Amino acid sequence: EAGVAQSPRYKIIEKRQSVAFWCNPISGHATLYWYQQILGQGPKLLIQFQNNGVVDDSQLPKDRFSAERLKGVDSTLKIQPAKLEDSAVYLCASSSGRSTGELFFGEGSRLTVL
Amino acid sequence: SQQGEEDPQALSIQEGENATMNCSYKTSINNLQWYRQNSGRGLVHLILIRSNEREKHSGRLRVTLDTSKKSSSLLITASRAADTASYFCATDAIGKLIFGQGTELSVKP
Q1: Cβ A108–B31 below 8 Å, yes or no?
Q2: Which alpha helices (DSSP H) does A26-70 contain, by range?
Q3: Which chain A residues are Cβ-neighbours of B101 within 8 angstroms?
């Protein structure tokens, strides 16, 4: 079974530029999550999708971050414009959606904002 | 906001010793999960314990849950160098998983 795919693995941009991250969850998983992990900290939930609907985006800085999950499969997370404090690893995870069980994580996309 | 707090923040032991990590949380939960993260990689699920369970085993892992104290512990027995990683507890309280800050475990050969 293929795992959660994320790209790109690394991205370096200057502040005020934009960036987009892509995630393809495990086939058949209804729930998709984006987490932000700053160095030395635990992952922080940014947004949770159930199929193509948003379940929770209370921690998403909506003035600069946006995410979509068209057709209830893959997802894109965008940051525009980026700030220095957005430097982090962006982790995508998916689950089968039957209550909050085991999450399967991708390898993450490491963003450096200069 | 972070719900779980792991203790200690860092732990260094010799191969063959046992490693114990603790997690405390603030609100009632549906379940508590432990994950491992190797440096530069994604998180890997280790074990899930439901709120009505007190102890669970998986190979060399033993997890306990005390809902009256709002705390959990993860015990890794007979540790190996390959167990070197960060370990996170995560709580499911309202249908979303909230992670703690993690314990960084170093197992020296």
Answers
A1: no
A2: none
A3: 41-42
State how far the Cα of A43 lies from the Cα of B87, in Å rounded to an integer: 12
Contact B96 A48 (CB under 8 A): yes
Residues across chain A: 114
- A58 in Cβ contact with A66 (< 8 Å): no
pLDDT digits (tens, 9 = 90+) for A104-114: 999 999 999 99
Express each pLDDT in A2-26 by its tens digit: 899 999 999 999 999 999 999 999 9
Hey, is the C-beta of A105 within 8 angstroms of any chain B C-beta? yes
What is the DSSP code (8-state) at residue B48?
E
Read off φ and ψ for residue A70, nearest 5 degrees: -70, 140
Long-range pairs for B81-84: beta carbons < 8 A, 24 or more residues apart: B81/B15, B81/B107, B81/B108, B81/B109, B82/B107, B83/B19, B83/B107, B84/B38
